[in-house]
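Researcher: Here's a chain I'd like modeled. Treat it as a single chain, no partners, no ligands.
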Amino acid sequence: MKFYSAAERIAFIATLIAVLVLALLPISRLDEFGIDIGFHYDKANHASAFAILAFLGSLGWPGRKTRLIIFLALVGAAIEILQGTSLIERDLDVFDWIADCVGMACGLLAAICANWISRRMN
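Model: Modeled as a single isolated chain. Structure tokens:
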């Protein structure tokens, strides 16, 4: 394992925790804590969060992209299911999950480009 892989793995885990907290706290709690980050368009929040997760994850675990995408797709689906419960007080929206998947594709493409550029520079 190279040093940069460890850094990306740590960044991935930290980002995943942040995404889970932001996605699973009720809106009233986010407002109570004064947390208002992201875009005003919810689908952009989903896509950007999962793009970053896919980017960091594919750099941290370059040989496990298929497992990463399956994991992230399941995480996105679980978030939506949990948001649909009365405990979270949010809405289940399949289009949020689709935005997650679009974000994952963009993150993978960015990681592929970054790896290509890195190989060309060496």
